[in-house]
Amino acid sequence: MQPSRGHTRAPARPASAPAREPPGGRRRVPTHTRQIAFALAVAVALAIVFAAANVAQAGAEYWAHAAGGGLIPNDTGIPGMGGAPGDWATTQWNFTGQFGVQAPQAWANVAAEGAPGGKGVIVAVLDTGVAYMNRGSFRRSPDFSRWGFVQGYDFVDHTPYANDRNGHGTFVAGTIAEATNNHYGLTGLAFAAQIMPVRVLNSEGEGDATTIAEGVRFAVNHGARVINLSLEFSSDVTASDIPQLMRALRYAYRKNVVVVAAAGNEGHTAVAYPARAPHVIAVGASTEHGCLAGYSNDGPGLTLVAPGGGADADLPGDPNCHPAAPSGRDVFQMTFTGSSPRVFGFPDGYEGTSMATPHVAATVALMLAGRVLGRRPTVAQITRRLRASARKLGGPGDAGLYGAGLLDAAAATARGGGGGSPLHMCRGAERRMRALAGGACTTGTGVRVVVKSGW
């Protein structure tokens, strides 16, 4: 995969792995440029008062409590599209919208448990690297805290410095832990969790099963409790083609490390590896409208969906799906605005199961930090909680399309909760936020296996 800004991504494959078109008829993926509509106007009339040190300085954080318990950060959004405290919400429909993951209430839930923002949990991002440090030509993203990272490794160039050369990994890490409540930019769902940057994909967004397996083992052995894999193999790759990665994933499971992976973007009725592997949480993508995204793989083995942006799938009978209507918005975080690892912004064009996956990884970090399932819940317990708390989408018989439904970070982090949080049950800040959002590889056999970053 060659990630680039502003258009639908297409895989770059070696001659031994020719590109294949996804089966037609059921879905479409738009190729036109989408205009980003910021029709929302967040009314910051909640008498918000923020004090003390911000997250970037790892100090005690004081949040405004809107009536009902939601926590509203003071981040000011995308320059030129906001500017007032709280304007991040005009862009991050995926966190606050009707079909977002209900971040404000999730933040309130874990803060009440003494673990604001997922503090104390390490999430390994196995990707193209992360813009996490100033070194040579590389710069730390302006919306990352210097204290927000632990030591990682570059398994592509075999150095301790997992610097990003693409932008994909930086975007994924930002969805998890972009600095929050610092009067700047956008927010991260598990903003106080620490990121372990592990580079397993090259500058073109490609990697191999051996390298990814090494990254998985490194993350497990160095304290990660969650591993994010926003990447996918081609649909013709089977478990027998990637034995070393399958062994690494089993190792993570035995060590009780949660692995979250992208279901894939080929529009197939089969989840791609590694998401398809046993005990891996497989994440499909939903749109701003609450429909399955047109590019998202589905089928048996899909755990749930999370916001990935883009156009609706053509699913007759699903009231949330309008494939002929304008696409929903993309997902936004700070990353490279072009090819330079020194120039940052909030580019459009980011949509995919890659974007959906870190929402789930971040929610798991919040659950672990808040100990809503106890001190050391098992992978199976966490997976069951995610499924039980998901919001149902589609209709009867649609589990193959949506898995358990749409990720609900608020319900997943609620102590003692288990079910989803239907709209009529929302209270206070959560209800207001929804209204503002519109209401509603090389194997042992010598075969090279190329894995795509999951756009």
Written overview of the protein:
α2 packs parallel to α6, α3 runs parallel beside α6 and α4 runs parallel beside α5. Helix content is 21%, strand content 10%. It has ten helices and twelve strands. The termini are close together. It has a seven-stranded parallel beta sheet with strand order 2-3-1-5-7-8-9, sandwiched between helices. Strands 4-12-6 form a three-stranded antiparallel beta sheet. The protein has a two-stranded antiparallel ribbon with strand order 10-11. It has a single domain, classed as Peptidase S8/S53 domain (Rossmann fold, 3-Layer(aba) Sandwich). With 455 residues, it is an alpha/beta fold.
What does the secondary structure layout of this molecule look like, with pairings?
Elements lengths: L92 H4 L6 H10 L9 E6 L25 E2 L13 H10 L16 E6 L6 E2 L1 H13 L4 E4 L1 E3 L9 H12 L3 E5 L18 E6 L17 E4 L27 E2 L7 E2 L7 H18 L8 H11 L9 H4 L6 H4 L15 H9 L14 E3 L2
Parallel strand pairs: 1-3, 1-5, 2-3, 5-7, 7-8, 8-9
Antiparallel strand pairs: 4-12, 6-12, 10-11
